[in-house]
Design brief:
The model is unreliable at 1-32 (pLDDT under 50). This protein has 465 residues and is of the alpha+beta class. The strands form six sheets. Strands 11, 12, 13, 16 and 17 form a five-stranded antiparallel β-sheet that branches. It contains five helices and 26 strands.
């Protein structure tokens, strides 16, 4: 083989080595998922179920159950199933002390799964979740395929150049090296501009096929915005509420809710006297959600269900429901100022202005995230008369968040085991019109969700006081 041919092949070898090294640096690792936190009002228990992320399959699946103050001890029966076929079961024994209780199950393949929780006393919930697959994008296949082909052609060119009588024959496999490198480099260059396919579970109804190979059924539109809002029907029976969610166009049960702010459904109830209940109904079937309201008042409750539908965005469905009960009415809440909530001193201040700043000052820097947030603020108004009827007819019904301070490099949101926030929880809110508003500020401390009610009078100038 001539010296010029050898030099050319050595140069190709060096280029191939550099390109291969660059390609390896851009290789995808295991799927980057996140823990799934889902609040569940299971009977009389308010729980947070944390489904820890799974990177490969088959693999153990850890499920943590967080209990709160007042949660009764007992045993939860957990099970996971894929396509209706059970995979594994585990029992989680809940103690009398609030905290985290763990269970270990097993998943054996990527795709849509369901976790079921059963308390053994007739209360059952199912939580859909996705076990991700490691997906190799087409551009990555082209890049590495090109590098492998270039290496094979290079070896062939070396053999032909050494053994052939005419070194010109080595130019044929050398051309293959160049073509393969062109494919590999083109794939690497296009990787940054190649759009990802619609994500099963968040943008598409998940199936085992589109989870394992989302590129096979990729559509031009990444999100289907054609799904209409849901219709909400609420039925009460002896303190138990049944929520029926149906499609606004077809009337069929809606079974495509997403986990939004750590819950499938955020149900906010305002009693006739103004007592707030922030609950999280459990899914018992398609479009069928249940929740128990402990010790209700008699009268009309205002109902607001906040949810996120796949392809439909976040929605707020409002209604009313008549309840029977014997609970004493809640006292009229004060305005800004100090008060004690469940033994915790809280000082509520409202800075006037447009927008207004609403701040609750707690005793120490030991608040825990609840539903992924540092605090929640429910605003209804303006209205007069009974709180339940007024909240049901109020033009404003807002749910405002105080965010947990971000931590650089932290993938998952901190869960309720992290008691390191506060002591101030602040919200910024603009009252749309003058009048009397009722607000409820919520934060978690010591595994107890504290609800701070207050009345805000907004004058015509737009300043709260």
């Amino acid at each position: 083989m001539g010296s010029k041919s050898k030099a050319a092949l050595l140069m190709l070898l060096a280029v191939l080595g550099i390109a291969a090294g660059s390609g390896t640096a851009y290789a995808d690792g295991a799927p980057t998922g996140a823990d799934i936190q889902v609040a569940q009002t299971l009977g009389a228990r308010e729980l947070t179920v944390i489904i820890r992320r799974v990177d490969t399959t088959p693999s153990p699946l850890r499920v943590d159950v967080v209990t709160h103050q007042g949660t009764a001890p007992g045993t939860l029966h957990l099970a996971v199933a894929a396509g209706g076929v059970p995979s594994s079961r585990a029992d989680v024994v809940l103690g009398a002390t609030p905290g985290v209780y763990a269970g270990n199950l097993q998943v054996d393949k990527p795709g849509p799964w369901e976790l079921s929780l059963d308390d053994g006393a007739g209360q059952r919930a199912t939580i859909p979740f996705i076990v991700p697959a490691r997906v190799v994008p087409p551009w990555e296949k082209a890049t590495y395929g090109g590098f492998v082909a270039a290496g094979a052609f290079l070896l062939l060119a070396l053999i032909v150049g050494v053994r052939a009588k005419r070194t010109a024959f080595a130019l044929i496999p050398a051309a293959g090296v160049v073509a393969a490198l062109a494919v590999a480099v083109t794939g690497a260059l296009l990787s940054a501009s190649t759009p990802a396919p619609p994500a099963p579970g968040s943008q598409l109804d998940p199936t085992f096929d589109n989870v394992t190979d989302p590129y096979a059924n990729a559509r031009l539109s990444t999100v289907d915005y054609s799904r209409p809002p849901v219709n909400l029907a609420v039925e009460a029976r002896q303190g138990d509420l049944t929520l029926r969610l149906t499609d606004g166009a077809t009337g069929r049960p809606v079974d495509d809710l997403l986990v939004h702010d750590n819950a499938l459904v955020h149900l906010v109830l305002v009693s006739p006297s103004g007592r707030l209940s922030h609950l999280h109904p459990v899914r018992v079937g398609p479009g069928d959600y249940r929740v128990h309201l402990a010790d209700p008042e008699a009268g009309t409750y205002a109902v607001a269900a906040e949810l996120a539908r796949r392809g439909g965005g976040v929605q707020l469905a409002r209604s009313t429901v008549d309840m029977k009960g014997a609970a004493a009415p809640a006292p009229e809440p004060p305005g800004p100022g100090p008060r004690t909530i469940d033994g915790t001193p809280v000082d509520l201040t409202i800075s006037p202005g447009t927008p207004a700043t609403i701040t609750a000052h707690f005793p120490a820097q030991d608040l825990q995230p609840w539903l992924g947030m540092l605090g929640h603020l429910i605003v209804t108004g303006p209205f007069t008369g009974p709180a339940g009827e007024g909240a049901a007819k109020a033009p404003t019904w807002a749910h405002v968040h105080a965010m947990v301070p971000p931590v650089a490099g932290q993938l998952d949101r901190p869960d309720e085991t992290v008691a390191a926030y506060g002591p101030d929880v602040s919200f910024t809110y603009t009252f749309a019109e003058p009048g009397r508003y009722r607000i409820w500020l919520q934060a978690e401390r010591g595994y107890r969700v504290l609800t701070v009610p207050a009345v805000v009078d907004v004058p015509t100038t737009g300043a709260a006081r």
